[in-house]
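subagent[fold] <- orchestrator: predict structure for attached chain, return tokens only, no commentary.
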Amino acid sequence: MSHLIAEGGRSDWYITAGRNADEVVRYAAEQLNMLLYRATGALVPYHSDIKSRSSVSNKHGPEFLLGPGVRPNLGYNVPTEDLEPEGFRIRSCGEDIVIVSPTSRGVLYGVYAFLERFCGYRRFSSKVERLPFNPKLEVPELDIAENPAFECRDVYWRDAFDGKFASANRINSGKADISLKQGGMVRFFNFHHAMLDLVPELEYFADHPEYYAEVDGVRKPTQLCLSNQEVIRLSAEKVKSWIAANPDCKVFSIAQNDNREYCRCEKCRALDEAEGSPAASVIAFSNAVAEEVCAEYPDILLHTFAYQYSRKAPKNLCAHDNVIVRLCDIECSFSRPLSRYAENQPDSTEAKFVEDLRNWSEKTKHLYVWDYCTNFSHYLAPFPNLASLQENIRLFRDCGVKGIFTEGNFSHGGNGAMAELQAYLQARLFWNPDIDLDLTINDFLAGYFGAGAPYIRRALDLWQDAVKDADMRIYYRPDAAFITDELVEESLRLCDLALAAAETPEIYERVDRARLSYEYIYLVRLPLETEGRSLLIDGFGRRLKAYRITEVSERAHLEWSLEKMKTSRYNIDNSGRDSIYYRM
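subagent[fold] -> orchestrator:
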């Protein structure tokens, strides 16, 4: 039996939530009400099933029933036991459609999934959405169930921090501005490199250098001495103080600092050598802190890294059940899937990473990944990773990864090469790595760039083809062998065609911002003696500022970067860098 939801601006349907519905389910109902009206012109009213304290309201027609406990007298009992906490089920029950989940956030995700599937709704970016108008909405009998591929899904692009984008695309990021009614965020306290926050250098180093790393026989406040029992005690006490001050947070980072100067004292070194990796002392320390913390706070998770020197898993040591190990692929190439490197180049960095990934999956219940998707030295440089993105995410899922974080341009001005496309694709893939990627890309491009979409797609494909036999890492230079003047010039020409095809000023601006990537590469590749080069860079800088882009290179002041573009061909001279520090 099909369901006729709306026709000719009229609907007999209602949206009903239970008497105990929280603000997330109520928000889901509001979204369904608003977006159905925009899609069909028909008003589908929203109300509660409560009539009085002891009875439920009468039905007046077919209903969308949202969340658990709604209209218990109907006895539908749609199961949720087989769903993950944020999964959902959409099921036809008689004349009604039920959307349920183990959590309120999952109900909201189910509402968005219904609107996407049957109304064509898309939230492409913080500012761009699509909702075609269709005065007749009829859907078949439904029995749809979805679970997220990853429990924690973090898309680390500035635009993806928008709460509306995040909730509509099923991101539960710890950085996104997701309000409580939108389901809230999965909070991480002190998310990244945290060791010197546990035992602060200014507080302890002068009197207790033994608390810190021994490197070449000298104690340095670069990392902690992870075998020192007093360091473990102080770290556990610090984490407990963080927990007390942040009762709504369940994950606390105790991860290593961003350097390779880890402790080589006799005790730390002995454990690392016995286990075949400096990760051993990291895990032993994390386990010891977890033992102390979780005795008092059993539901708290501690977060550490398998990063650079600690990337290789220990031979035998496993992580405590309350420890998240986040494996980072910072050294890898992203032009081809990691699994392809593992098959064809067994001695490559990428093949060794895949080996580490599989080994870590046996060492921790909570394996997370820190992935990368931009050029941090040249944020505006194209980053053609579309051939590897989906396959890598599938690999992570198949190896038991529970949480994924992909770092793009998170600077406060945002942008970066095809930033909105990257954020959108990652959000969709984190929920379901098996989507039709080509279809999803084209759907985004048509919705975002309008009639200019084919030209933008052609430029993307040219760059993807250029790197198919190259290694493309996150600090690649604009003089990389896979970049040619012809490639850059053709990309600019295609963007100009897309600009000419733009139907509205808003679409024109989106194409123009996308064009900045190719324009940046063009400018920095020009020989320094090119007449008018500095004037071209000045004009480019004015356009960056007009679009409120704050960084060309990670944590570098824009004015400094623009001056370096003038004096350093390929913009590769970082001497005297004017660095900006801010928290992730």
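orchestrator: received. Logging for downstream: The chain is about 40% helix and 15% strand. The radius of gyration is 26 Å.
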